[in-house]
Amino acid sequence: MQAYQVSAPGTAELVSLPEHAPGPGQIGVRIAACGLNFADLLMKKGTYQDTPALPFVPGLEVAGWVASVGENVTEFEVGMRVAIFGGQGGLAEYGVFDASRVVQLPETMSFPTAAGFQIAYGTSLLALDHCARLQPGETLLVTGAAGGVGLTAVEIGKKMGARVIAHARGAEKLAVAKAAGADVLVDASDDLRNVVRDLGGADVVYETIGGDVWTAAFRSTNPGGRLLPIGFAGGDVPQIPANHLLVKNLTVIGLYFGGLLKSHPQVVQETLAKLFAWYEADSIRPHISHEIPLEQVEDALALLRSRKSTGKVVVTMTGAEAP
């Protein structure tokens, strides 16, 4: 099989690797699509908090069909359409994954859509509902609002009844956020802190950029507000002044999708079940800006690195249709 393998920090290439049979409790998957995440860039650099041992194949989430099953696996059969949050191994034509990480797909969901669905939508619904308890009528600020997770936060926040302020760079990205349901648009060139404060402040902040953007969002949060540091696409991890939390009665809530899957799998499974139901009811509409073949994976990663994409970037594998 072809796979995109990282052999040293910052060094990766397409290589030919053997396909392994699944062990007990595992399934073998013919991968049709892999959704890219900013974590893949960090993994390649060796700076992600959960980077596998070298050499490894990045790619956190995939969709495809079951090619083989290991011992003690009874809930999946060869030919089933599935999606997996595996944490690694996705940028390949085939992979072996623990069956506990696998979910069966709705018949109406395509492989590219499924490959970019779990992390983006799962993170946003867990963050806004399970963690922040977003309420109808509250104001939600989403930074990086046209990105992979940010766009889903706009869509879900609006569905939950919030007034959504979307922060993104440029008219094109802001238009994508508006189409997802944003009520107010703020360009990245604007003074975020003052614009949001003039709008009455934010009750919940879904922050994906870090650095100065986090600082501005933090300062525009209303007393009693909740802040979710979802990512640091800008490169700078913010330092949070505890005295400001105290004075304004603020709550900062951490969320790592992979970590919650390990510690509270039932919560994640219930969240994904709700999201799949919303999808089947046509209540949410995933946005994929680029589908790029595995042979051009470097181009796909470059889109993510340069922030030229909106929604999800998905890498597709040729010859991956089920028999």
Question: What's the structural blueprint in terms of helices and strands?
Answer:
Elements: E1 2-8, E2 11-16, E3 26-35, H1 38-45, E4 61-69, E5 81-85, E6 94-98, E7 102-104, H2 111-115, H3 118-131, E8 139-143, H4 148-159, E9 163-168, H5 171-179, E10 184-187, H6 192-198, E11 202-207, H7 211-219, E12 221-229, H8 242-248, E13 251-252, H9 257-263, H10 265-280, E14 288-293, H11 297-306, E15 312-316
Parallel strand pairs: 8-9, 8-11, 9-10, 11-12, 12-13, 14-15
Antiparallel strand pairs: 1-2, 3-4, 3-6, 3-15, 4-5, 5-7
Brief sketch in words of this structure:
This protein is an alpha/beta fold and 323 residues long. It has eleven helices and 15 strands.
Low-confidence stretches: none
Distance between the termini: 18 Å
Average pLDDT value? 95
Helix content: 25-40%
The shape, in one word, is globular
Rg of Cα set: 20 Å
Structural class: alpha/beta
Distinct helical segment count = 11
Q: What is the percentage of strand-forming residues?
A: 25-35%
Element-by-element helix/strand order: EEEHEEEEHHEHEHEHEHEHEHHEHE
Q: How many strands in all?
A: 15
What profile does the largest beta sheet have?
7 strands, mixed
Protein traits:
alpha/beta, 7-stranded mixed sheet, 6-stranded parallel sheet, 27% strand
